[in-house]
Amino acid sequence: GSSQFAQQCLIARRLVEADVPFVKVARAWWDSHGQNFETHLELVTELDNVMSALLDDLSERGLLENTLVVVMSEMGRTPGLNPRGGRDHHPNAWTNFLAGGSIKGGQVIGATNRRGEVPSERPLRPGDLHHTIFHVLGIDPDVAFLNHAGRPVPAIDHGEVIRELV
Question: CB of 17 within 8 A of CB of 64?
Fold first, then answer.
């Protein structure tokens, strides 16, 4: 596609082909505090099309098995609509997507209650996702960084590898 996000994913694929070890693509603006259905029709369509093309592209070039693709946001969306017909920030439940690398694909891990309000099956925490990403990338999960006072701060302070995925 010709959208900015599609072009950024194409550049990301080229960087992976050039052996750049870490590449980040950011899809700017996903908020839908109003007009949720109209907004998401555009956003989700673009995300589906671009990500499926990127994964196909990486696979066809033999790069997917050595490339971890992570799609995530900072939080989920409320299951119900606000008075403006939008969905607000909802940190209690949201979806992340991993593909490639050593990830065992084709799975859904965890579920929310029927209204999408809270986890009801296999609840995970951010640290579980972080541990899994570190595991796939071969990074020691116990790594720490020094803060401004010279004290070590762990990169991950909780969680464990999501064993169903690796």
Answer: no
Q: Considering the chain, what is the average pLDDT of its residues?
A: 95
Whether 80 contacts 90, CB under 8 Å: no
CA pair distance 95, 133, nearest whole angstrom: 15
Q: Strand locations in the chain, DSSP E?
A: 32-34, 68-71, 76-77, 85-87, 89-90, 97-100, 111-112, 119-121, 144-146, 152-154
Mean pLDDT, residues 90-116 taken together: 94
- Residue 15 CB: number of other CB atoms within 10 A? 14
Give 1-44 as a 3 state SS string: CCCHHHHHHHHHHHHHHCCCCCCCCCCCCCCEEECHHHHHHHHH
Q: What is the DSSP letter of 165?
A: T
Per-residue pLDDT reduced to its tens digit, 136-156: 999 999 999 999 999 999 999
| Tokens representing residue 62 in the block | 């033999």
